[in-house]
Specification:
Elements: H1 2-21, H2 26-43, H3 48-58, H4 64-84, H5 93-99, E1 100-102, H6 106-114, E2 118-122, H7 128-138, E3 142-147, H8 153-163, E4 169-172, H9 173-182, E5 188-193, E6 206-209, E7 212-215, H10 219-227, E8 230-240, E9 243-252, H11 261-276
Parallel strand pairs: 1-9, 2-5, 2-8, 3-4, 3-5
Antiparallel strand pairs: 6-7, 8-9
Helix pairs in contact: 1-8, 2-4, 3-4
């Protein structure tokens, strides 16, 4: 009982802090981002070895100077996203729609009118949290987003509350497939961020991604086939600090049930985006920790 009360107090304190942060002007927030950048990059060297290894292996033809340039830009963008995501709990619908614009919502409208569901593939590229939060503002149909529960219950509860603010349904990984299949005859948007490394026990497919042997999830591939869903990718492009554009890209319009065929489509699409602007991807993630040993 004492532990539960402590968690309740911590939850209220954190919510109060987030509400206060939500009142800080964006100009001040980005000054804070510069301060955080100094400590994260210069003082603590947060995951610097992972970032440098990932960049070197992904771009073997790049010079050291080019790699360092990407590295510095990555850390600046990373700190901006950290700051921006402190606003998940307080940002208004109008402010979010102003800062995260969907260029082609008519794709969602067409699916809604046809009563057709879709798997929407996203990535940890630019501000993926704002992207996920904004989808329910643009889609007439229900939005379902997969997530991995956090170990810290207080933080997990706050993140869930923030992510559900505008109507999205946040579904744990272990029950996401069942939820998608249950809704297969409804018009739903099912968001999956499919660019992280699968758990070692769940690796059953490999492909070449950014010049490396890469384990990938086959979940989206299987769900599209099993539920006869549309297969879409969502791009998130940064216009300037705190302003983004999203674009829905159909990945295929014909049924191909060959294992991995749709996975290759979204992996190749993400690779092209990363090659165009590599600093915007999450290089601090240990993406290739479960690759096959050579």
């Amino acid at each position: 009982l004492i532990f539960e009360r402590k968690e309740c107090y911590m939850n209220k304190i954190l919510q109060f802090i987030l509400i206060l942060i939500g009142k800080i002007p964006f100009k001040i927030l980005y000054i804070m981002s510069e301060v955080i950048l100094f400590f994260v990059y210069r003082i603590f060297n947060y995951r610097i070895e992972t970032v440098q290894k990932n960049l070197k292996n992904s771009f073997p033809k790049y010079s050291l100077r080019d790699l360092i340039k990407i590295e510095k830009k990555f850390y600046r963008n990373f700190c901006d996203i950290l700051i921006e995501n402190l606003l998940l709990f307080t940002i208004s619908k109008n402010e979010l729609k102003k800062r995260m614009v969907l260029l082609n919502p008519e794709i969602f409208d067409t699916l809604y009118n046809k009563d057709k569901g879709a798997i929407l593939i996203g990535a940890h590229y630019n501000n993926w949290e704002w992207m996920a939060l904004s989808l329910a503002l643009y889609a007439k149909q229900d939005v379902y987003t997969v997530y991995k529960p956090l170990n810290n219950k207080t933080i997990n509860d706050i993140m869930l509350k923030a992510r559900e603010r505008f109507g999205a349904n946040i579904v744990p990984m272990e029950s996401f497939a069942k939820t998608v299949l249950k809704n297969k005859n409804r018009s739903t948007i099912n968001l999956m961020l499919a660019d992280q490394s699968p758990h070692k026990s769940k690796v059953d497919y490999y492909c070449t991604f950014l010049n490396q042997d890469t384990p990938v999830y086959l979940g989206p591939d299987k769900l599209v086939n099993a539920a006869n869903l549309e297969f879409l990718f969502i791009e998130v492009n940064r216009l300037k600090r705190g302003y983004y554009e999203m674009k829905i890209v159909p990945l295929c319009n014909k049924k191909n049930e060959e294992i991995g065929s749709k996975t290759i489509l979204h992996v190749n699409h993400l690779e092209k985006i990363i090659n165009d602007q590599p600093e915007n991807w999450l290089w601090s993630h240990k993406r290739w920790k479960n690759s096959r040993k050579k």
